[in-house]
Specification:
The chain has about 325 residues and is α/β, with parallel strands linked by helices. The protein has nine helices and eleven strands. A hairpin with a 3-residue loop joins strand 5 and strand 6. The radius of gyration is 31 Å and the shape is elongated.
Amino acid sequence: MNGRTDYFIPDIVSNIILASANIVLYGFLLNNSVKYDVVKNETANDSNAFLSLFKNPGFYISTLILILYDLLFPSSASNRLAEVLKNKPLSVLISAALIIGLSILVWVSNIKNNIGNKEKKKGRPLSIILGYVIPSAAVVTIVYFIPFIAVQINVILFFGRFVLIGLIAALLIYFTVIYSKALTERKKFLIKLKEICKEKGYVLSEIRNPYKSIFRDDGKISYTIQNKDVITEHKLMSCLNKATNVFLFEEGGVIKDLPIKLGKRAVLFSFRHKTMIESNKCYVIFTSSPNNAVNGTADGKEYIDNNSVVGNLIYFTSIGYLNTLERDQIR
């Protein structure tokens, strides 16, 4: 006979956890409301920030929405506390006091942070929609489904496998596409390079790791070209994502920096790769070019283009390089 141990969370513990989760969600909603609707009062100071709070209708709107939600919605903090305390009026009072206290704390804190700011908020109706209505709907939806998620954890795990498989498949497709594009662009470049060298009578050396460098780059020269008595060194590089920022430094370093952004400006973090090129003078050719290339030695304020010189490095995109080579200007 096979035995099986069933695990369960006592009702009192689960209700305390869910009540606490509600309070945390209330805090997120209040903070969101403040970000969109806090009064920017240049006459306010630390001593009267508390008084400024009561002049702001946003404080009353956001607090009232939470209290109404807490009273009416079956999965709210007060209802969860009522299951624990077995006293509905007392639970409502405790929950309302927590909401009011949390609201005062969040609003006063943000009013103090905005003291002296003369910027005026515009679009009050939009602020109400973004600050109150949408987050309220989100809170209601999330909290409502918490009990169902807790009960149907096995169902979630079942569907989670398909979600995980889908994410893995999406990532595989994404990387397959970007690497295929980079390989295709490199191949087209190499074909055109060989054609020009043959046509012009240049001596093209063996190309080192023509495709491997797309996946793993190092600082070694890719190939050389001999034009009469002049031998020039060349380095092939690639940017898989055009949003990558490329920085060239006078000491021979190339940094590829891919920022991961929230919105258009806020940078969460970035992926960065640095390559030190071993050459006294090197033409650096990006067969998959970035949108932005910058002189890193100039504090990132000087954008560079084809044939720009930074220390011992000369920057080129593939098209600019091939055109310059065809005009016999690579020396």
